[in-house]
Every structure is written in structure tokens, then in C-alpha cells.
Amino acid sequence: MEVDILFFALYRELAGTARMRMTLSSGCVVSDVVTRLKAGGGGLTSLPSQPVVAVNREYVPLSTPLSSGDEVAFIPPVSGG
Q1: CA spacing 20 to 30 A to 25: which of 39, 64, 68, 77?
Q2: Per residue in 11-55, pLDDT tens?
Q3: DSSP letters of 19-80?
Q4: Cα separation of 58 and 53, whole Å?
Q5: pLDDT of 26
Q6: By C-alpha distance, which of 75, 71, 74 is closest to 2?
Q7: Which of 11, 15, 28 is nearest to 64 (CA)?
Q8: Cα–Cα distance between 34 and 74 in angstroms, integer?
Q9: Measured distance CA(15)–CA(4) in Å, rounded
Q10: Cα 81 to Cα 79: distance, rounded to the nearest angstrom
Q11: What's the pLDDT at 79?
């Protein structure tokens, strides 16, 4: 199955792109995407092990199952005053 991965702000800079497509095996969950991104080398090795993630525009836990065509967005922490 294929999912679209979106990166925002700092994560976009670490990934070097705002978007990518990833092919996964059936039965994968969000944490599998995190593991694969961290293992892929480059800037995403510094991705936290528990990032804030949304699937199809809804915040979800890392244990959320994925389906073909899902959009997985990585949202970095925001600070401000």
C-alpha cells in the first residue's frame, strides 16, 4: 500500500521536502512510518520517537493502523508567547 507523508516547518527542513510517498506492507501502523523515516538516514534521524502525527487531518496515536491512500502529516512542536 502507498501513503503520502507530509512534513511541516522544522520537519520539512530535516526531510528536505514537504511531501513524499512511502510504500508499506499491509497491516502497518504510524509507528512503522516513524521507524522507517528515522532509519533512512539524513535529517530525519533526529525525528523524535513520539512525534505529533495526524492521519487524514486528525491527530492520532502512533498505534493507528494505516490504509492505502492515507495522508500522514508530521507536525513539529510549536513554541511562542
Answers
A1: 77
A2: 999 999 999 999 999 999 999 999 999 999 899 999 998 999 999
A3: EEEEE--TT-BHHHHHHHHHHT-GGGGGS-SS-EEEETTEEE-TT-B--TT-EEEEE-----
A4: 8
A5: 94
A6: 71
A7: 28
A8: 9
A9: 14
A10: 7
A11: 62
